[in-house]
Design brief:
Layout: H1 22-35, H2 39-47, H3 63-87, H4 94-122
Helix pairs in contact: 1-2, 3-4
Length: 125
């Protein structure tokens, strides 16, 4: 069975130049960056009335919250190593069971801490 050929978009043959102030350009660049596309592609989509989805960047000022997220990633990595070991036919020892239980307990504690911190950040508490 042959592989489907990749569709190549047609070449853009016409040029349109638009002059902007620095303020207008910065707004265009910011919106294009939030949408994850180039400024020229952003303008093309505006002209063609295509829906543009802006993806707002979430920024947390709390170093404590960022530390919690970093630790969650480390614990997730440990659990992935254990899962890989077991999937490759490794034995599940009593020590591993204890380590997995500890990781799960720490994850639950971190989850509760994150909920509390995010609630404070959003002003829910």
């Amino acid at each position: 069975m042959s592989k489907k050929k990749k569709d190549i978009p047609p070449a853009k043959e016409h040029f349109v130049g638009v002059r902007m102030t620095d303020e207008m350009w910065s707004v265009l660049e910011k919106n294009a960056e939030l949408a994850g596309i180039s400024p020229s592609e952003y303008i093309r989509r505006l002209i063609l009335n295509q829906k543009i989805v802006l993806k707002p960047e979430l920024v947390f000022e709390s170093t404590e919250l960022l530390d919690v997220f970093r630790n969650l990633g480390k614990i997730g990595g440990n659990l992935n190593q254990i899962a890989r070991h077991l999937n490759e036919g490794g034995t599940f020892t009593e020590g591993m069971a204890k380590e997995v239980s500890e990781c799960i307990t720490v994850l639950h504690d971190m989850r509760d801490k994150v909920k509390e911190m995010v609630g404070e950040y959003r002003g829910d508490c």
